[in-house]
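User: Here's a chain of 314 residues. Predict its fold as tokens.
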Amino acid sequence: KQWYQRRVAITAGILTTWENHRSPAQHENALFVKRFFFEAFDCYIALFYLAFIENDIVLLRKELVSLYTVDSIRRLATETILPFITRKISRIIDSTENEANPVLYKDYDKIEYEQFDDYLEMVIQIGYVMLFAGAFPLAAPLSLICNVVELYSDTFKLTYVTRRPAVHRSTTIGVWSTLVKGLVLLSIFTNLYIFCYTSEQLLNYAPSLFTVTPLAPEDARWSGSDHVHNVAPGAAMTVTAILTALEHVMLAVVAGLWILISGVPSTVTDELSRREYVKFQRNHGNIIHGVSGATGYFDRTTTDEQLRGKLHHE
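Assistant: Prediction complete.
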């Protein structure tokens, strides 16, 4: 896994350098996108095969359960425990520790913190939860448990394993927000396909659209179930129409939520307006509500919306 990640990082870095982006921010975003797609392919390819090629819902659920258990243990071991033990052993062997400034030496001796790995883990986990929610609804509560463990693991890693990360002010999470939105849109299609074809959910609602075929014992041993279901002859257009209709409805719901729900909460907007108001008063004096010396900028009839508009214009 780590060998693959190193090869991916090198390949993505070379490709991004060849693109010759104008600014460092554009270069970094392009690099993150490439590395994410490489890593996502490695993480999701087996699940996509089980869900959309084999159409085996039982094996898909087993694979998701194993991912949440084994991968959480792997991350805890490879990102926190092993680096910490290796660092302790190397410090015992190394006899060149600087006694003049041991605190500085201890921090310098730690490995450099790479925030891409932490962002990648969270976005990949969001993909597990959303892309295959129809097959494994317990992914969300399991993710919550894993994130609690990850919280303490990252705290330990940032304190004892890695160097103190440099602080960079930022208003957003950058290109990661776009990647999450892409996963949201993709999850509509994956979950509807699982609903209509892979799982037996649509079969339970409309059994006349499918045929159920028992499997032989030797075939059932390699499958997750003792039977398979297929679209009944002549019902393919009906199932496709149901899938298309549901897909349009879900896309409309997602578009409506994006339009109706603001990206900035009203409490944050009010707080920013209050700060602008206080800043204006500090710079221009108390000229609110017709105080002497005012130039008519505000009066007693000024509404809150007009006040916000004037302050925003300033």
